[in-house]
């Protein structure tokens, strides 16, 4: 493939964003080509509907049509370092999901013997010890093995937390992001690895929309109707920003700085969850500004008091 592409004059190459696409995009760029990646769900509507079935030729024709559309949204091409950092995040998230599945399985198994414990992990671990002897036969062994495996996952997750935090603190852009309330090392590292310097987005609102933190539209006849957030795009980034926003509201206390007053007023006027989403969306926009403008980014006095 690469020798064939290298022989072509510089041209536009469109590809679906899939496993290995970023690697090939970097290689094609080295030979002077312009490479654009698209989410497969945005390419599918351009597949010829008049023909039955799905084959490589129809997929290629759909990609050629989609890549030339002026309103098409493209996936930012990641460099090798970004993908290395994302490997840390994806592996850590896999361990977290596996640990959650283990605790859910554990609660379901002990419920078969009439033992019902809280869902919160700390409460579950604290109270399950008193019930282990009540489990008959091999059930005691099964629960013990599940708890031991969960302990191993806890250690793995802690190791990856340290690795991600270390990588974030070594990077100047990540350190600037961590100055924002609600953005810690894990969120800063994930944002930087996902959107890079932000040059693939025109403004912060596009980043918030890409993460799925903007309201969906159901407008017709010139009347705008805004619904709930779209939840499109990167769910991992969205969850990190939402968790950061929740930590901000939980730690407001009696703080009287401009940001705390704005967040408290928003929660009182619009409710807790709408305030969480608004804070998360604001952090996404400001994160784009920090990454896009770098050291030149400065909040205006009015924005600083509200942000």
From TrEMBL:
Name of this protein: Mobile element protein
BP GO terms, sorted: DNA transposition
NCBIfam families from the UniProt entry: transpos_IS110
Top-level taxon: Bacteria
Pfam entry (one): Transposase_20
Organism: Sulfuriferula multivorans
Domain Transposase IS110-like N-terminal stretches: 7-112
Domain Transposase IS116/IS110/IS902 C-terminal: 175-248
GO molecular function: DNA binding; transposase activity
């Amino acid at each position: 493939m690469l020798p064939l592409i290298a022989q072509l004059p510089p041209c536009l190459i469109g590809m679906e964003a899939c496993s290995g696409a970023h690697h090939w995009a970097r290689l094609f760029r080295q030979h002077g080509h312009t490479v654009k990646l698209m989410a497969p769900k945005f390419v599918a509507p351009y597949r010829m509907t008049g023909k039955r079935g799905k084959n490589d030729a129809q997929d290629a024709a759909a990609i050629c049509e989609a890549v030339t559309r002026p309103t098409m949204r493209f996936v930012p091409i990641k460099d090798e370092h970004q993908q290395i950092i994302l490997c840390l995040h994806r592996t850590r998230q896999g361990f977290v999901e596996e640990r959650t599945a283990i605790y859910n399985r554990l609660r379901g198994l002990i419920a078969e013997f009439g033992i019902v414990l809280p869902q919160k992990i700390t409460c579950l671990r604290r109270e399950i010890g008193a019930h282990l002897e009540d489990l008959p036969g091999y059930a005691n062994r099964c629960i013990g093995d599940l708890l031991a495996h969960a302990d191993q996952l806890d250690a793995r997750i802690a190791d990856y937390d340290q690795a991600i935090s270390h990588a974030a603190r070594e990077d100047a852009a990540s350190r600037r992001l961590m100055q924002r309330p609600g953005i810690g090392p894990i969120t800063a590292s994930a944002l930087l690895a996902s959107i890079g310097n932000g040059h693939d987005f025109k403004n912060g609102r596009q980043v918030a929309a890409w993460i799925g933190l903007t309201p969906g539209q159901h407008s017709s006849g010139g009347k705008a109707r805004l619904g709930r957030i779209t939840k499109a795009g990167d769910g991992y980034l969205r969850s990190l920003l939402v968790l950061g926003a929740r930590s901000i509201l939980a730690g407001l206390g009696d703080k009287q700085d401009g940001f705390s007053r704005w967040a408290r007023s928003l929660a009182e006027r619009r409710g807790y969850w709408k305030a969480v989403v608004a804070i998360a969306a604001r952090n996404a926009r400001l994160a784009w500004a920090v990454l896009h403008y770098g050291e030149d980014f400065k909040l205006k006095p009015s924005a600083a008091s509200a942000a």
